[in-house]
Amino acid sequence: MNSLRKTFSLKGKKNLYFNNHLERNKRAKTDLAFNKMNDVNMYNADNNLLGFPTDGKQFEIKTTRKKIEFCPLQDIPTLTINFDMEWKRLKTAMDAIYNSTPLSDSLEELYTLCENLCKYNYASKLYENIKNELINYLKQEFINISAKLEDENFIVSLSSLWISFCKKLIMIRSIFLYLDRTYALREIKIGSLWSLGLELFKTYVVNITNIRIKTINDLLQFIECDRQKNFMAGNEKNTYILLRTIIKMFIDLNIYEDFEISFLDASTEFYRNESRSYINKITVATNHGQLIAEYLQRVEAYLNEEVERCNLGCYNGYVDSITRKNVTSIVENEMIKNYINVILEKGFDHLINTKSYTDLNRLYNLVNRVDLLESLRVYFCNYIKKTGSFYVLDSSKDPIMIQSLLDFKKDLDDVLELSFSNNERFVNTVKEGFETFINERQNKPAELISKYIDSKLRQVRNIPEETIEEIQERCMFLFRFINGKDIFEAYYKKDLSKRLLLFSKSINIDLEKSMIAKLKDECGGGYTSKLEGMFKDMSISKDLIAEFNKTAECSRIGNISLYVNVLTSGFWPSYPQSNYNMPKELLECQNTFSDFYLKSHSGRVLQWQNSLGFCVLKADFPKSPKELIVSLAQAIILLLFNNGEVLTYREIEAVTQMNTKELKKSLQSLSCGKYKVLIKSTEGKNVIESDSFAFNKDFESASRVLKINSIQAKESLEERKTTREKVFKDRQYQIDAAIVRIMKARKTISHPILLSELFKQLKFSIMPQDIKTRIESLIERDYIKRDLANNTIYHYVL
To answer: Would you give the end-to-end CA distance of the chain in angstroms?
Structure first.
């Protein structure tokens, strides 16, 4: 038998496969004989070689149902073999395989022949002969491929040679598989036939200088065409296969590093030229912002292409993934890192102004890849400061300053969310920028924030509650950064008082209290104590007037409906006194309520604020009756026309005894406003002392209830100036108190240290010159004194 294989079961263990190839006469025997146990290849079910120790004796194996017995072999077989003759048969087979001609022997016979040669110690000689034959083949292949060096299809020929050689080497290895699994596996200094073939191919073909250089150069030309998209239409697939084949050849031959070095050098040159070309074009163009956006898109596309290119498993991938990091770093450095200042200077403002959030996100990701987010953050911060200063410092934009800043903040929030991934550093940059520019113009932003909130809270009937809540929250963002929080408080308190007193029926108490709660959370209870006291007074007044209406005193005021708000002077802003010549009916109402209040609140003083009063008058116009909501001053003037249809300015002035400014303002609102219930004798919006006024009998309006106190409710420039002056005066007291507090604790202190302590304690910004003025004032009042030897040292006066 040329080849025998028998399977034995050993008490439930894995099957053992015994291969034995012996030249024998054909006969049937139960026993299977071995020449040497060392010549036996034993494999388990996983086809792994089993070591089986032996002392060199010859054995036979007798098998029973449950066990295997090893007994000395009685008849020792003999075998003679002629290596040269057998090698000739094997060489003929190798030639046939390499020349792609039919084999004269079957593969099984060739395999057995190889096995026999190995078993009789010809393995080393056989291996050497195979090596020499392969060398001869490759020397001829080298001659053939060298002849094609100047051919434009050289790399195609090399690819075909490589593929053909690998296929032939696999066939040859299958014949000498026994040699590969025994001798080649045991010998450490030699490799498998596959490794041998690859090493010889590298030595006698690819590693030849001309061929290696030509191959790498052709590869780089193909890759550059790929980058520039210069492949012929429909030829991309074949080109990718060709590139993949050659580069895999470099990897298999362990010379990929040679290609990689050249590939990275060529990539550096390519992307350096690309970036230089684009940047030069951007520098001279006028629409550089748009070109920057296109440049960023191109960079991102290049990076994605390189990632795909360095993926052998991808359709258009042909470079080993180990190169991916290096080549993408080249793109990042050459196209982003080296030109980061140009990109940000030429393109950042354009991208953010045009709300190109996708391009901004692309810029953010690219800059982040090269670890230059700090440069982007600096440009972002400078942009915020520059844009914010544009809104704050231009006084002509005061009417729209706060709305512009809120819109600006909304745009920045979109940038943070959609472009900068809400990076905490960039979120803090927004805060840093707002804190800088909003205080470049002292006190004005604080005043305008208060006015803006006031305007929105007066429009609660026209704006949804959710929208006003959002506006309040956004305004609080601005409020957090202003230094003049006392300015804001003064104006907010004044505006809140008007809303509570003059517009109490149209305001939303929940929204008002929500705003107070936000201020309290930000600045503490002391900051909002007076504002909360105002709401408390309104609540007490409501209960008080309900009690008043139940008493006997209420009957003394006849058919007049009276509502009084009793205000604590410490909570509310101070108001100028307006002394009018009140009509008898109104004066009686005031006296009646005063008597009622002082009965239960003895020791208190009621001071009537006529400038804050308003009335609802029923006016019988010939065409239709109306209800007029007017200020107390307007009501006093209108009541005069019950006794006469035409009155001169002088007559009205004599009867009402109002000051000139308030009288003219009231007459103007009644005769020149939206509702002209009085007719002025002269044209124009200004009231002059020679004017006369008549009751407008022809007045008509679609509305039954008319509100005519809009002019009266508006804050004048003088009132604003008075509010600011009061705040500045309060600041002087705070500075004085802070200086005395510091001096009392330190006893002796130098001027620079005193300034430092004051800046820490005071919650508003202050100039050193203002502090110097207050120090001089305290020295004059003997709170502190200068050191006689050093004028910059102060002592506390005990």
So the answer is: 128
3-state SS assignment for residue 627: strand
Instruction: Please give the structure tokens belonging to residue 625.
Output: 């009756």
**371 token code pair:** 């670890």
- What's the CA angle centered on 76, arms 74 and 81, to 5 degrees? 170
CA 323 to chain centroid, in Å, comes to 30
CA–CA distance, 738 with 733 (Å, rounded to integer):
9
Q: In the numeric block, which tokens belong to residue 143? A: 């001659």
Sheet strands side by side (includes 4-8): 4-8, 16-20, 41-43, 49-50
pLDDT, tens digit (0-9, with 9 covering 90-100), for 62-101: 445 555 554 554 444 455 678 889 999 999 999 999 999 9
Query: Rg of the Cα trace of the chain?
Result: 51
What are the residues facing 626 on neighbouring strands? Answer: 619
Q: What is the CATH number of domain 83-207?
A: 1.20.1310.10
Cα 797 from Cα 786, distance rounded (Å): 10
Amino acid at position 608, single letter: W
pLDDT tens by residue, 108-161:
999 999 999 998 889 999 999 999 999 999 999 999 999 998 888 899 999 999
Distance CA 720, CA 94 (A): 107
> Which DSSP category does 550 fall into?
T
Q: Where are the alpha helices (DSSP H) in 234-356?
A: 236-252, 256-284, 288-309, 324-335, 340-353
Model pTM score: 0.73
Which two three-digit tokens encode residue 425? 């550093």
CB 680 within 8 A of CB 687: yes
**Tokens of residue 426, six digits:** 């960039």
Q: Contact, 758 vs 742, CB < 8 A?
A: yes
Q: How far apart are CA 303 and CA 330, in angstroms?
A: 10
Answer yes or no: CATH 3.30.230.130 is held by domain 613-715: yes
Of 211, 327, 198, which Cα lies nearest the Cα of 265?
A: 327
Would you identify the CATH topology of the domain 718-796? Answer: Arc Repressor Mutant, subunit A (1.10.10)
C-alpha closest to that of 663 among 676, 673, 650: 650
* Spans in the chain with pLDDT lower than 50: 1-63, 70, 73-77, 712-715
Residue 709: HSE in the Cβ half-sphere, 13 Å Cα cutoff: 23
The residue type of 440 is E
